[in-house]
Amino acid sequence: MTGDGTLAIESVQRRQTSERSVAEYALLGLIAKSESGEIHGYDLSRSFAGSGLGRILRLEPGMLYHYLKKMVRDDLITSTVERQTGRPDRQVHSLTRDGRDALQSWISAPVRATREVRLDFLVKLYLARGLDPVRAATLVADQRAVMRSRAARLSEQVDDAQGDDLDNAFGDTVLRLRLSQTRAALDWLDTLPESR
Amino acid sequence: MTGDGTLAIESVQRRQTSERSVAEYALLGLIAKSESGEIHGYDLSRSFAGSGLGRILRLEPGMLYHYLKKMVRDDLITSTVERQTGRPDRQVHSLTRDGRDALQSWISAPVRATREVRLDFLVKLYLARGLDPVRAATLVADQRAVMRSRAARLSEQVDDAQGDDLDNAFGDTVLRLRLSQTRAALDWLDTLPESR
DNA sequence: CACCCCATGTAATGAGTTACATGATTTT
DNA sequence: AAAATCATGTAACTCATTACATGGGGTG
Questions:
Q1: pLDDT 10s digits, B36-82
Q2: Contact B24, B67 (CB under 8 A)
Q3: What nucleotide is nearest A82 when CA is compared to C1'?
Q4: Least CB-CB distance to B176: which of A56, A58, A188?
Q5: Measured CA A86 to C1' D2 distance, in angstroms
Q6: Cα–Cα distances in Å, from B190 out to A157, A196, B3, B28, B194?
């Protein structure tokens, strides 16, 4: 075994620090992007489905309202009732200080694993573009750096590996898949307008 | 809306026909690969961790025994008690006809989505290599075909897309990421010994 | 004597999916 | 008259993760 050579393993473990799902950050981002800074669940649901986010992840009403309640509980957003006549009352939400901070720091952090590019990074990029183009540019740059070092590391490991028996040959196969996926992500990052 | 142009969306929905998890098939495969055709849970756990499978997915004892019970219930494997003295009794498992069929047809079916290459396809490939090299070769060929048509389709969509507003531009970005990931998978498939 | 190996589990927890409940009002 | 829109949820279910229970035997 070379160093901590244990490759990242499939298992969707939330980070110990009670990490939130992508969908929650997506909601925070949509609230932040809303013109008045406040928005109710039903509108969120529509703008979610209508926006670019609806193209990469699905969020059913049940889960949406669940997340909103959870984030109110955790003091990331506030909720005030807006009475209506002839229509059901609305719960209007807006970001708290904590919510804004959580959103900003989540968006700013590049993803570590290549597999997270497809979902997590895309959501970060979408929100960053909508909220602050400068942040989008640094995000892309930071993500490039992560992917580059990851590619370098994988590349080393591929060179070091010798495929004696079947299982070692397979380990090599796995490494080369990861390397090729990582390089593809890197190339894609380079084509983004933020990389110009 | 062009045809059913709704892009595949993130949501790990099991297929309606009560689909099994990758780990279950991995277990079926390990039982099939065992020399005597039968093996008990504890040995399975060790050979799982020790084999190439342990490099791509994790399976804790709790889940392993859970799957074994489930598959006994569903008549994919049988279980007989092997008494021991000075040691706990063992539950020895072997494949039933249904189990062998389920395993073979799962292994033979290429994955549809590119994101499934990283886990599902790798497990299929590992098992196919261990059980029947010929099947491994056809699997790789079939998977190549799927990825090629997927790349072609994505390529079309990229050409058709025009990025007017922010959300359409994002849709284009998403498509190009998928295309690049799919092409990378395709290139990787070509480097496999089965493609020679 | 403390600890690890053998061997199989259970219990607690949490996260996500799907389908449905409600009840008024507007559109077809 | 039927259906869709508005607006917010609840309930039942599946699936996976983690940690722990058990209890005898061998090893440092």
A1: 999 999 999 999 999 999 999 999 999 999 999 999 999 999 999 99
A2: yes
A3: D7
A4: A188
A5: 21
A6: 20, 32, 31, 28, 8
d(CA A105, nearest CA chain B) in Å: 22
Residue B91 in 3-state DSSP? Answer: strand
Contacts of A63 (CB under 8 A, 6+ apart): A23
Going by C-alpha positions, the residue among B73, B75, B57 that lies closest to residue B21 is B57
pLDDT digit string (tens) for A59-109? 999 999 999 999 999 999 999 999 998 899 999 999 999 999 999 999 999
Nucleotides of C under 7 A from a protein CB: 6-11, 15-20, 23-26
CB of A32 closer than 8 Å to CB of A100: yes
Whether B175 and B183 have beta carbons less than 8 Å apart is answered as: no
Can you tell me the distance from the alpha carbon of A191 to that of A184, in angstroms, rounded to the nearest whole number? Answer: 11
User: Is A99 within 8 Å of A28 (Cβ atoms)?
Assistant: yes
SS3 content of chain B, % helix, strand, coil (to 5): 65, 10, 25
Spacing of B3 CA from D7 C1' in Å: 31
> Do the chains contact at A188 and B174, CB–CB below 8 Å?
no
Q: Which residue is nearest to nucleotide D10 (CA to C1')?
A: A62
Q: What is the pTM of this model?
A: 0.91
Any idea which residue has 């019970």 for tokens? B69
Give the per-residue pLDDT at B10.
54
